[in-house]
Amino acid sequence: MIELTDTNSSSIAAEFVRSRTRAGSPAMGMVMTLVIVAPEEDAAEAMAAAKRASREHPSRVLGVILGDARGAAQVNAQVGSGDGWGGETALIRLKGEVVKHAESVVLPLLLPDSPVAIWWPTSAPRDPAADPLGALAQRRITDSAAVPRGKSTAMLTQCETYAPGNTDLSWTRLTPWRALLAAALDQHPLKVTGAKVTAERISPSADLLAAWLCDRLKIEVTRGSSEGPGITEVTLDTKEGPIRIARADGRLATFTSPNRPDRPVALKRREVPALLAEELRRLDEDDVYAEVAQRLVKLRGSK
Amino acid sequence: MTNTNPLRDPQDRRLPRIAGPCGMVLFGVTGDLSRKKVMPAIYDLANRGLLPPGFSLVGFARRDWADQDFAQIVHDAVKEHARTPFREEVWNQLSEGFRFVSGDFDDDDAFDQLRRTVEELDQKRGTGGNMAFYLAIPPAFFGNVVGQLKEHGLADPGADQWRRVVVEKPFGHDLESARELNATLAGVFPSGSVFRIDHYLGKETVQNILAMRFANNMFEPIWNSNYVDHVQITMAEDIGIGGRAGYYDGIGAARDVIQNHLLQLMALVAMEEPIAFDAESLRLEKQKVLASAQLPARLDLTTARGQYVAGWAGGEKVGGFLEEEGIEKSSTTETFAAITVNVETRRWAGVPFYLRTGKRLGRRVTEVAVVFKRAPHLPFTQTATEDLTQNALVIRVQPDEGMTMRFGAKVPGTAMEIRDVNMDFAYGGSFTEASAEAYERLILDVLLGDPPLFPRHEEVELSWKILDPVIEHWSKKGKPDSYDSGTWGPESADKMLARDGRTWRRP
């Protein structure tokens, strides 16, 4: 890691080239730029998650820490490559007036022609697509379950301001659940008459799952509360009896279905790096999430 | 399925494919293949949540074991060889479905027991009557086993059920035996239910050949005899035959590797664009390439074979092939084989495909190198381009999967001096939990009934048709040439290319 104090974008870019040359391999194999916007206290953890995700998606990772916007503008950066990274990385600390113009720092550092993804590991702007940094990216990743306060409201806000390219890790967390539920209906092609999602009292993922089931199955989905962790049970009612997936410990679920023996199935809660890697696998619009977001807004509005 | 599942949406590409209710019967549980590849792959699939709830694994072998003993074998294999971290809860869930049936392949009682076990699993675990039979055993026993399966009603699925059989190479040792083998399997299982595993075809890089060729516009225009000079396909191993003497002696490098892996790679590189990326369309195109492949008239000038002798490989002193345990001193089995194949189509007329493979070569590498013709006119002086050879595009299959482009560039600081340089592309992903190992991909495809990546018997037979005359020619010629361990093969291989005015790449 090279420390650059009171610097600017072109110096950071020059340092990227120097560090590549120093590593003995001036070629670039990176496939995208990932911008991470985080407060100082969350930055280290977010960068560690990006490091693990970068093994699957070699990227230029730009960590942007927005400091106090008062006073004289200053840009400090730590630039590095190698050391377990699949690409290269810069942690950029902004303070003073430049905090309001962070996009001017990031824009010159985007890799030519390749896609840009942006990730807010904790608090995100109300409308990510309208955010100046968010506007640079075609994939905007938020995480409503990670905001410090008002997770459900945060989820609803993200759904309301949905724009093509937006996505939320609360949605990503659902993939194994949704896969299992879809597989259950592959095995039991029955009409579902009702459904219930039980989870921690506040769980953006559970809200999305209920909205997804409601949207796809055209039924009312009730929501139950439990101690968690996360989602603990999903039940689909059919005329032959319930299809139930129950997971009490966040690791192993029990799969119950009509006329079949109960079966255990691995359903482990995933860590952030795995979620991030899944998000970066597809960078086009997620149409299913778009519909679910719309449905969630409608459901909340009617209450 | 006529009912469409409301939870499935073609737009929803996040949802992984999970196999429907099913189980697998594994024959030959103590072999290397089972322990190093199949069992770990099954665990890795379970760990990634891609196996159906209730998936069951039945081991069949001539051992006096209980279910727990079998579970212990799988446990050790998984601990040692699995790619993903060991999780107790996944293991517990998986191991509940382990059963073991003890018996010989001609033991009727044992197969009755196997049928009862399969039926019990349907009842208790909900495998739904869907079973894959994985024959990780020598091909000599295939006939016995599939015959028994048929006789004991294990090969006949009920309505809405499937029974599939999975076999590994070698798919015979010549055209005739391949046909026999196929007849044996086809007598019991319809051809759509026979899955031949060529693990090379499960590799990301190999699938990437198709993406590279058919999703891009910049390669296709030069992908023909106007621009391509020749193609070299290499699969080199740095190890000797190890403990596989019993299998290897009499088989040799050509049958072991060229017949399946290299000719399949050649077919993927040379084929025309398939009309769709499905099993049938791919097979049609590959088959056309294999059917139009011809050997040159003079096999003595266009092939080479060798046997490694003692020497130093990678800093270690190693013995020669004839000194390996279990190999006759007079063995004429080749450990290095190189052949020339001409693909007689308009696209490839006059472009030889050189295929080579061997053991105890310089390093472990598999690659396809497409070597281009020299530029028709060079506006530089001859001295300026002395170091410039031919442009090449190299598809690195393993290790270090990726692509290399080789072209000329000006040497900095000189007036005008042009020399070859390499440009590399390596996609990350080989280290992540989500990117599957070839066996995982293929086993999942078997359970899903998704056949694009499996060679069909027509392809196997066409490959033997290409190779048989070479092997016959060699069998009349006595002993193979020798080459020092740790080198790139016998001198005759270099001479073979030199006759065409070419040289082998050092991969």
From TrEMBL, chain A:
- Which positions, given as ranges, span the membrane? none
- A Pfam family found in this protein is OpcA_G6PD_assem
Domain Glucose-6-phosphate dehydrogenase assembly protein OpcA C-terminal per the UniProt entry, residue ranges: 164-292
InterPro entries xrefs: G6PDH_assembly_OpcA (IPR004555), OpcA_G6PD_C (IPR046802), OpcA_G6PD_N (IPR046801)
Positions of the Glucose-6-phosphate dehydrogenase assembly protein OpcA N-terminal domain: 50-149
What superkingdom does the record give?
Bacteria
What is the protein's given name? Glucose-6-phosphate dehydrogenase assembly protein OpcA
Where does this protein come from, organism-wise?
A: Nocardioides hwasunensis
> Source taxonomy lineage?
Bacteria, Bacillati, Actinomycetota, Actinomycetes, Propionibacteriales
From TrEMBL, chain B:
**Sorted alphabetically, which keywords does the UniProt record give?**
Carbohydrate metabolism, Glucose metabolism, NADP, Oxidoreductase
- What SUPFAM superfamilies has UniProt attached to this entry? Glyceraldehyde-3-phosphate dehydrogenase-like, C-terminal domain (SSF55347), NAD(P)-binding Rossmann-fold domains (SSF51735)
The pathway where this protein functions is: Carbohydrate degradation; pentose phosphate pathway; D-ribulose 5-phosphate from D-glucose 6-phosphate (oxidative stage): step 1/3
Per the record, a Pfam family? G6PD_C
Name the enzyme's class.
Answer: oxidoreductase
Per UniProt, substrate binds at 199, 203, 237, 256, 359
Disordered: annotated segments: 477-507
Basic and acidic residues bias (residue ranges)? 492-507
Q: What Gene3D superfamilies does the record point to?
A: Dihydrodipicolinate Reductase, domain 2 (3.30.360.10), NAD(P)-binding Rossmann-like Domain (3.40.50.720)
Q: Which residues form the Glucose-6-phosphate dehydrogenase C-terminal domain?
A: 210-505
The residues that the entry says bind NADP(+) are 62, 104-105, 169
| Catalysed reactions, as listed in the record | D-glucose 6-phosphate + NADP(+) = 6-phospho-D-glucono-1,5-lactone + NADPH + H(+)
Q: Which EC numbers characterise this protein's activity in its record?
A: 1.1.1.49
Q: Which domain of life is it from?
A: Bacteria
All copies of the Glucose-6-phosphate dehydrogenase NAD-binding domain together span 25-208
Return the InterPro entries for the record: G6P_DH, G6P_DH_AS, G6P_DH_C, G6P_DH_NAD-bd, NAD(P)-bd_dom_sf
- Please give the Gene Ontology molecular function terms for this protein: glucose-6-phosphate dehydrogenase activity
Q: Which family does it belong to?
A: Belongs to the glucose-6-phosphate dehydrogenase family.
What the entry lists under NCBIfam families is as follows: zwf
> Tell me, what does this protein do in biology?
Catalyzes the oxidation of glucose 6-phosphate to 6-phosphogluconolactone.
Name of the molecule in the record? Glucose-6-phosphate 1-dehydrogenase
Gene field: zwf
